[in-house]
TrEMBL record:
<feature type="transmembrane region" description="Helical">
    <location>
        <begin position="31"/>
        <end position="50"/>
    </location>
</feature>
<dbReference type="GO" id="GO:0007166">
    <property type="term" value="P:cell surface receptor signaling pathway"/>
</dbReference>
<dbReference type="InterPro" id="IPR000832">
    <property type="entry name" value="GPCR_2_secretin-like"/>
</dbReference>
<dbReference type="InterPro" id="IPR017981">
    <property type="entry name" value="GPCR_2-like_7TM"/>
</dbReference>
<dbReference type="GO" id="GO:0005886">
    <property type="term" value="C:plasma membrane"/>
</dbReference>
<feature type="transmembrane region" description="Helical">
    <location>
        <begin position="109"/>
        <end position="135"/>
    </location>
</feature>
<dbReference type="GO" id="GO:0007189">
    <property type="term" value="P:adenylate cyclase-activating G protein-coupled receptor signaling pathway"/>
</dbReference>
<feature type="domain" description="G-protein coupled receptors family 2 profile 2">
    <location>
        <begin position="1"/>
        <end position="153"/>
    </location>
</feature>
<dbReference type="GO" id="GO:0004930">
    <property type="term" value="F:G protein-coupled receptor activity"/>
</dbReference>
<keyword id="KW-1133">Transmembrane helix</keyword>
<keyword id="KW-0812">Transmembrane</keyword>
<dbReference type="Pfam" id="PF00002">
    <property type="entry name" value="7tm_2"/>
</dbReference>
<protein>
    <submittedName>
        <fullName>AGRG4 protein</fullName>
    </submittedName>
</protein>
<feature type="transmembrane region" description="Helical">
    <location>
        <begin position="62"/>
        <end position="83"/>
    </location>
</feature>
<keyword id="KW-0472">Membrane</keyword>
């Protein structure tokens, strides 16, 4: 959906309908944040699969992932819309090219908080999970090598 909204965004912004542009910018923002959130959830799943291998039963795990994956971005978008729906709009980059219009976040502070900071948090979480998984794999490998050395003697 992120790709579909992105590809149709410029074309739909050419209709000069503020409501349509706000809708497109909101959808683009939502699906971008949803992609980041699902990427973060995948790293949590990766962690559970490699580090917390045993006794990791989480009741209704998929339902909880879906609520987080689709709900957290919805909360961010709802918050931005409640504060001011005019944060979304048509940002023309060039007067000579009518197809340069693009519906997106118009306020830099909102962009940096709701996109860049959001991505940064996801990136930090993913990095922490990745390092933890690598350390776990390394410790298992080290234990296996020690065990195999003692078994051969």
């Amino acid at each position: 959906m992120l790709n579909m909204v992105f590809l149709t965004n410029s074309w739909l912004s050419s209709f000069s309908q503020p409501g349509l542009c706000i809708t497109m910018a909101t959808l683009l923002h939502y699906f971008l944040l949803a992609a980041f959130t699902w990427m973060c959830l995948e790293s949590v799943h990766f962690y559970l699969a490699f580090v917390k291998v045993f006794n990791v039963y989480v009741p209704k795990y998929i339902l909880k992932c879906c609520i987080a994956g689709w709900g957290i971005p919805a909360l961010v978008i709802t918050l931005v819309l409640i504060i001011n729906k005019d944060f979304y709009g048509n940002g023309s980059h060039s007067e000579s090219n009518p197809y340069s219009d693009f519906c997106w976040i118009q306020d830099n502070a909102v962009f940096y908080i709701s996109v860049v900071a959001y991505f940064f948090l996801v990136f930090l979480t993913n990095t922490a999970m990745f390092i933890t998984v690598l350390l776990q794999i390394h410790s298992v490998k080290t234990r296996t090598q020690r065990t195999s050395r003692f078994g051969k003697q």
